[in-house]
Amino acid sequence: MTETTPPRLFLASQSPRRQELLSQIGVTFAQIDAPIDEVRGDGEPPLDYVRRVAREKAGAGWLAVAAIPGAVVLAADTEVVLDGRVYGKPASREEAEAMLRSLSGRTHQVISAVAVMNAGREQEAHCITTVRFAAWSESSLQRYLDSGESFGKAGAYAIQGRAAAMIDRIEGSYSGVMGLPLFETAQLLRAFGLLTQI
Asked: Which GO terms describe its biological process (predicted)?
């Protein structure tokens, strides 16, 4: 009888939020870096873009660990979408302010995709969550920008941070808005033998 190597999970992400969320469901993993160019193609639908980026991150991560027996790579991407426009991570305070002004008092979508890959296969799942912001007052907006929380966050806000006080309602996955939809992630990890039922 041939012994099989137990699967070993690698999270292809530098995000502390994704690391925290993955730990939350009792998964043991190592973190690796898998940088890619996140550029939306001309006319590429937002959902297709988010799914593609998650797959490309997983592929880049796989290249780093392919020689490790039993290696499995998990990667994810999350973007905020309003009126067909994708709001990624702001590059400046001005860009963050413009994003938040656009989202103020309106309902937007947050698309999160997860891709899992090993030597023999790749699977992907995604979720779309609807988020409604209350209208930001000028003073609240400037205080939020002053906090620095906007940077490194799709749509220039963190649902798990101060911006939660401005979110009127959410329909969908809270963890998906944070950056890693745990229900979908758990399903994928079970399919790869990395998680049992809770």
From this structure: nucleotide metabolic process
Q: Is 146 a catalytic residue?
A: no
Q: Tell me the per-residue pLDDT of 59-107, one tens digit each, with 9 for 90 and over.
A: 999 999 999 999 999 999 999 999 999 999 999 999 999 999 999 999 9
> Any idea where the domains of the chain sit in the sequence?
8-191
Q: What's the pTM?
A: 0.91
CATH class for the domain made up of 8-191:
alpha beta
Q: State the CB neighbour count (10 A cutoff) for residue 38.
A: 16
Query: Torsion angle of alpha carbons 158, 161, 163, 168, nearest 10°?
Result: 100
Q: Which residues contact 31 (CB under 8 A, 6 or more apart)?
A: 10, 11, 13, 14, 19
List the beta bridge partners of residue 133. Answer: 167
